[in-house]
Design goal:
The complex is a heterodimer of chains A (142) and B (153).
Chain A: H1 2-15, H2 18-21, E1 25-30, E2 32-38, E3 44-46, E4 57-62, E5 68-72, E6 78-81, E7 87-96, E8 102-104, E9 110-119, E10 129-141
Chain B: H1 2-20, E1 24-36, E2 40-45, E3 59-61, E4 67-72, E5 78-82, E6 86-90, E7 100-109, E8 113-115, E9 121-130, E10 149-152
Antiparallel strand pairs in B: 2-4, 3-9, 4-9, 5-8, 5-10, 6-7, 7-9
């Protein structure tokens, strides 16, 4: 009787998808930083890039070995605020691996995810200051 | 009885494993930018060599009493000052050398570069030297526009 339970347990466990065996997690590494711009500057884009740098945002994705996952980036503009009611918009979020395809975790179960976006043209009348805003990234096992 | 105990253990063992895995995760990051004031200048005063007579020698207006530009921009930020090398004033269309006067040796105060105050303002003054006037220098009002370029460093 005891053996039957063990066999059932193993059978059930091995039938679970890899995803259930190990959670898919995102760990924040760095923020998206457009640096310093001047009033009147034209639109600027930070590319996702292929490694962590001073501009792109980066996350470490961890989960089951060799698992594939999809990436969801903000689809509507993200407002950065100076805390005094003034905002500038960030649009066109892009990632590497790209949100259009899927990420594949390595044999160690991790992959770096890099994110870039575009800051719109700064009006000459935009008040000077430090502008920040947060954006959300989601990963889902495929 | 043995069966029941075994089954309960089975459930206890299995449950934490089956529910520990999550198929998705969401995290946020900051996006940030620092916006600084644009560099802007307006003319406060023109460079004026006053009155002179045909045959007069060169005349220099020191930067401190020359043209004046009122500058605004990002507090504490430095900017460079680029002056013209020379310009030519003219009167009546300036078709001949006798109706032209060259202005050169531009100087500024501060020289080369300046830093905006904590209030984001600065003043740049510009002087220059007017060439000697010819004996047959045409009488009239001579003028020309010159450009000073200020650039954030």
């Amino acid at each position: 009787m005891k053996n039957i339970f063990i066999i059932s347990y193993l059978a059930f466990f091995s039938s679970l998808p890899a995803s259930a065996a190990r959670s898919l997690t995102l760990k924040w590494i760095s923020d998206l930083d457009f640096g310093t711009v001047i009033q009147g500057d034209s639109s600027q884009t930070v590319a996702p890039g292929t490694s962590e740098n001073s501009s792109n945002a980066s996350f470490r994705v961890a989960g089951a070995r060799n698992a594939t996952y999809s990436i969801v980036l903000p689809s509507s503009p993200v407002a950065l605020s100076d805390g005094s009611g003034h905002t500038v918009n960030v649009t066109g979020f892009q990632s590497n691996p790209s949100a259009g395809s899927s990420g594949v975790l390595g044999s160690n179960g991790t992959q770096m995810l890099f994110i870039g976006a575009t800051l719109g043209t700064i009006p000459l009348t935009q008040p000077r200051g430090a502008y920040t805003g947060s954006f959300v990234v989601t990963v889902v096992y495929l | 009885m043995t069966y029941r105990i075994g089954f309960s253990l089975f459930i206890l063992l299995l449950t934490p494993v089956a529910f520990s895995g999550s198929d998705t995760d969401t995290k946020s990051a900051q996006a940030k930018v620092i916006i600084q004031s644009a560099l802007s200048a307006s003319k406060g005063k023109d460079l004026d060599f006053g009155n002179a007579f045909a045959g007069d020698g060169t005349m220099t207006v020191p930067s401190t009493s020359g043209a004046q530009f009122n500058v605004t921009g990002e507090p504490g930020r430095a900017f460079s000052i680029l002056l013209p090398s020379n310009v030519t004033m003219a009167t009546g269309g300036g078709g001949t050398s006798a109706s032209q006067i060259v202005v050169s040796n531009f100087t500024s105060s501060p020289a080369g570069s300046a830093t905006l105050s904590s209030g984001g303002t600065s003043t740049v003054s510009v002087g220059a030297t007017r060439a000697a006037l010819l004996q047959n220098q045409a009488s009239g009002d001579y003028s020309v526009t010159f450009t000073v370029v200020l650039t954030y460093q």
